[in-house]
Every structure is written in structure tokens, then in C-alpha cells.
Amino acid sequence: MVIGASSADAGEQADTITEHAHRLRRRLGRADLRAVPRARREVRELLRHWGKPGRSEIAELLTSELVTNALVHTDDDAVLIVVVDADGLRVEVRDFVARRPDLRGPDGDEDTNGRGLVLVQSLADSWGVLPHGVGKSVWFELGAEAA
């Protein structure tokens, strides 16, 4: 399952339900951390009847990690794109800063920073970073079945 650049403007918000796929697209405002729980709720609603037990919770967690990273580390707007179909789920967070994210662990036992991409790497079936003309997309995929 591959998602390319969307023809919709970055500011457009669209929920699309087709015969084969459900899509969610949301613009996330600069440093608006209230967008993190909203994104989790929207993903939870989209995945209400999807996958084996636990898969939607993993999707929520990983979505919140990508959204948080984009809003905290880029100091710019971002766009959340979620596509779920019979093959699985793809979540993509596009930002407008070319700097690639660092995959690193936390600095110490007490540090809560630095775990986001480690969680994505550990729990997603696949993930990556795609450069765009302006910025990048950090994405992950999950199949509906437990690994």
C-alpha cells in the first residue's frame, strides 16, 4: 500500500470513505499539542472495527508519537494522513522541514524524550522517512493481523 503526495491542499481537511479504503487527512497547527489527543481519537474512531485486538491501540500510540515529533521538533505545521484498507493501515505525518529525524534512545532511565521513533521501529510492521520537495513524511504501516 503506497500513498503519494495528495492533490489536496495541506490545509484541507477531508475524511473519505470509499468502497475499499477509509482515509483521514488533518492539518496540524504549529506547536498545537492539543492535536495529539485529537489525532488519537480520530484514529481510534477510524479503526473502530479494524484488525485483531491490540492493533488499533498500537496504531493510536504510534500516530501520537509521529504527530508529537512533527509538532515539537519542526516548529511548523504538519499534515496527518491515515489510510486503512483490506491490506492494512498506513499513517503518514508530513512536515515542511527537510531535517530528517534521529533514531535515538532516551538519555537516561528517567528521560521520557527520545523514545518515539524507537517505539515506531519496534512496533510497526514497516516505517520510514520520505523526502519531499519541501519537508518530509515520516510513516508507518501495520497489517490488520498481529505479527
Question: Which helices and strands, and how do they pair?
Answer:
Blueprint: E1 14-17, E2 21-28, H1 35-46, H2 55-74, E3 78-85, E4 88-95, H3 116-123, E5 126-131, E6 136-142
Antiparallel strand pairs: 1-2, 2-3, 3-4, 4-6, 5-6
Helix pairs in contact: 1-2, 2-3
Give a brief outline of the structure.
The protein is built from three helices and six strands, in the order ββααββαββ. By secondary structure, the protein is of the alpha+beta class.
Supply database-style keywords.
six-stranded antiparallel beta sheet; 147 residues; alpha+beta
Written overview of the protein:
By secondary structure, the chain is of the alpha+beta class. Helix content is about 25%, strand content about 30%. It has three helices and six strands; from the N terminus they run ββααββαββ. It has helices at about 35-45, 55-75, 115-125; strands at about 15, 20-30, 80-85, 90-95, 125-130, 135-140. The chain has a six-stranded antiparallel beta sheet, covered by helices on one side. A hairpin with a 4-residue loop joins β5 (about 125-130) and β6. The longest helix has 20 residues, at about 55-75. It is globular. The two termini are about 15 Å apart.
Assign a percent range to the helix content. Answer: 25-40%
Q: Strand order, main sheet: write it out.
A: 1-2-3-4-6-5
What is the makeup of the main sheet? Answer: 6 strands, antiparallel
The termini sit apart by 17 Å
Count helical runs: 3
Helices and strands, in order, run as EEHHEEHEE
Tell the overall outline.
globular
Low-confidence stretches: 1-12
Radius of gyration: 14 Å
Question: Percent of residues in beta strands?
Answer: 25-35%
- DSSP, total strands: 6
Task: Specify the structural class.
Answer: alpha+beta
Mean pLDDT: 81
